[in-house]
Amino acid sequence: MAKLSQEDLLAQFEEMTLIELSEFVKAFEEKFDVTAAAAAVAVAAPGAPGAPAEAAEEKDEFDVILTGAGDKKIQVIKVVRELTSLGLKEAKDLVDGAPKPVLEKVNKEAADKAAEALKGAGAAVEVK
User: Fold this and answer.
1) Which end of the chain is more exposed for a tag (fewer CB within 10 A), N or C?
2) For residue 25, what pLDDT is reported?
């Protein structure tokens, strides 16, 4: 088989539907024993104008983003440490640097649970 250039490969990806591209990514991951989640999103977005609507319907991974610490900063730092494996300094830096993601690519239940815990401590939280 002749080697395809990067432009040829991108042209082929542009012609694929989102489902075909998803199946390709799964096959690629299995064949080479890698995870290409970020690459699949980057390739799918420009080639499929309907992708954002479809992705919103099928979304199963969420990010919990701390948008503000509120009045009880120490309590928020404690909750951040409980939710993550961060040390005290790292958790404090995360809270001080808000808006920052606390958890990334978690399921809906875990995202809601984390958001409630952070809100209970007085933080402003956003789930995306």
Assistant:
1) N
2) 83
